[in-house]
């Protein structure tokens, strides 16, 4: 029983740490997005071709940021699944039965 409590406490600690990492990453992403959106490209009014090119580059960089967010989500979900999925037999095999234990007989 104590071992299960230790495992539960360990899982809670790991999940809290990962939650903290996720929130810090989200904060970093939000600060990057706000700094990128606050930047205005310095372009002459008569040079429309370069303005379009710079706008496309900004959209591509924003798209790359979204790609990394999606990759981050995939990594997080796969790590959570790897941690919580799996055979449950190991926890049952660790349980000890008393010497005189008789399993119930169902009729």
UniProtKB/TrEMBL annotation:
Organism (species): Cucumis melo var. makuwa (Oriental melon)
UniProt-annotated stretches for the region Disordered: 27-46
Protein name: Ty3-gypsy retrotransposon protein
UniProt feature, compositional bias: Basic and acidic residues: 27-36
